[in-house]
Amino acid sequence: MARGFRTIRDGVTAFAMLALIWLIAAKLNDAPDTVHAGQFHTADGDSLTLGAERMRLRGIDAPELNQSCERGGTRWACGWEARATLQRLVAGSDTRCGGSERDQYDRLLVVCRSGGIDLNAEMVARGMAVSYGNYEREEERARVEKAGLWAGTFERPRDVRDHERERSGFEDVRRLIGQVTGWE
């Protein structure tokens, strides 16, 4: 009987230790948000700069700057329009953008707010960006209302980037390097 008790005690102790390690790891990963305020400049419909800090709006994907879309049989510069829309939204003196993670290009992933409004959500609701996992409700509303991009046809920004990469030959070079180095 003592042996069975020791086995249970050891199992409970091991579980408690694993739970403690998990809690410590979670706390270490809980970095505080870096918050920026000031005169933001838009690089495109989902990227901002403030001084030397480059930021990417989390959870959305806006048309590429040089991307065009179709609406009513006419092409329009949806990439430039998305950029202009974001610039107007971040122009408020109370705009704050905060985040704690960085993307593969070392841009701070942020959610921006102004006047109590989530500007990332607003870009999607206006049809100037698509949801990238966080703003499905806003995207559905934009689709129903045929706002912005949804008023016609467009290619998803990720697909535009993929096509540009393919046309540039980058994928061929990446594939060759992968074959030579074995990093495929």
Automatic annotation (TrEMBL):
Keywords: Endonuclease, Hydrolase, Nuclease
Domain TNase-like: 44-152
Top-level taxon in the UniProt lineage: Bacteria
SUPFAM superfamilies recorded: Staphylococcal nuclease
InterPro entries (alphabetical): SNase_OB-fold_sf, Staphylococal_nuclease_OB-fold
A single MF term (Gene Ontology): endonuclease activity
Stored PROSITE patterns: TNASE_3
Name of the protein: Endonuclease YncB(Thermonuclease family)
